[in-house]
Structure formats: C-alpha cells, structure tokens
Amino acid sequence: MIRLKNICKSFGEQSVLRDISMEFAEGITCIMGPSGVGKTTLINIAAGIIAPDCGEIIGLHGKKVSMIFQEDRLLEWETALTNVLFVNNNRPRAIELLTQAGLADSLHKKAADLSGGMKRRVCLCRALIAQHDLLILDEPFKGLDAEIKPSIMQMVKDHANGITICITHDPSEAEFLGGRVISFAS
Description:
The chain is an alpha/beta fold. It has helices at 39-46, 80-85, 91-100, 116-129, 149-159, 171-177; strands at 2-11, 14-24, 27-32, 54-58, 65-68, 134-138, 163-167, 180-183. It is built from six helices and eight strands; from the N terminus they run βββαββαααβαβαβ. The strands form two sheets. The protein has a five-stranded parallel β-sheet with strand order 5-6-7-3-8, with helices on both faces. A three-stranded antiparallel β-sheet has the order 2-1-4, with helices on one face. The protein is globular, with a radius of gyration of 17 Å.
C-alpha cells in the first residue's frame, strides 16, 4: 500500500494540490478528472519524481517504480526492441511483449521511424517488462488506433502487477481495466 497524506504542491504562485490524501492498494486504480487539476503532478509525487511542498508519502521507500509518461520518452535512435531491453535485458520476454502488442514486424525499426501509436505500444512494453512494485500509467492508451486499443488494454490488464495507477480521461478505459476509480478534482 502507498499512502499520500495531506499532500500540497505549488509551482510558483499556482497551487496545484491542496491537502490531498489517498491510498493505493494492490491492483488497478484509475484516476479520472479534467485536464489541469493536478493528476500528473499527483502521480509524479507518488512515484517520487517530484517532492511535495508538504505532506508525506508512506510506503514508497524501497519500492521499484515503472512509469509511462504522457510523452513517449523513447531513445529515438534505438530500435523498438532495444528500447524495451533498456530496462530489462530479458530478450525472449521483450520479444513476447512486443509481439503481443502487434509489433513483431517492427522489432528492429528505430523508434524515430515508428508511428505515434507504435511508439506508445513500445512504451507500454517497456513499462510492463521493468521489474516493479508500482506501475504508473499516465494516459497510456492515447494515440492508439481503435482496432488495436482493446487488445493493448487487455495486455495491460493481464500483465500489470503490484500497485497500478492509471490516469485516463476515458470512462470506458477505466471500466475495462476494472479496479477502483478515483474522480479527481484538486
């Protein structure tokens, strides 16, 4: 369990989070809310990427975190396979995940040559293969074609373990993933 207790965060004069408390247990939790309310700031705090101005994070110490950011953050000059192997050198598992994501024909293409949806799927494979106790997904399905999206959501559902936090704007994604839904308005 990871617990955020009385979290506050401001950027300059703009207060983004004010006295936020919530818990994340084993399984999937989807956070939904309008743009600009602080969802990404909240998960960056939960992941230990940024520090809160006040409050505390309980249960994060010693946990391995894997994360998909809103931006893909791939090594553009490396192949899809190399990008996944970067976090876990288990080649058979990397190939299995990339194949499951519909990228078997693109294993050796450079990330710069992949479409936006293909890059997103590489990011998902990289996050899933990384050893983690906490998996954080910030809008993981954005940019995916309607035909591939259901199988990718199923892939995440099948392979997510530990504590999983998913930010989404789409109620159908939250419903599909199951688990707890938090409606967030800072």
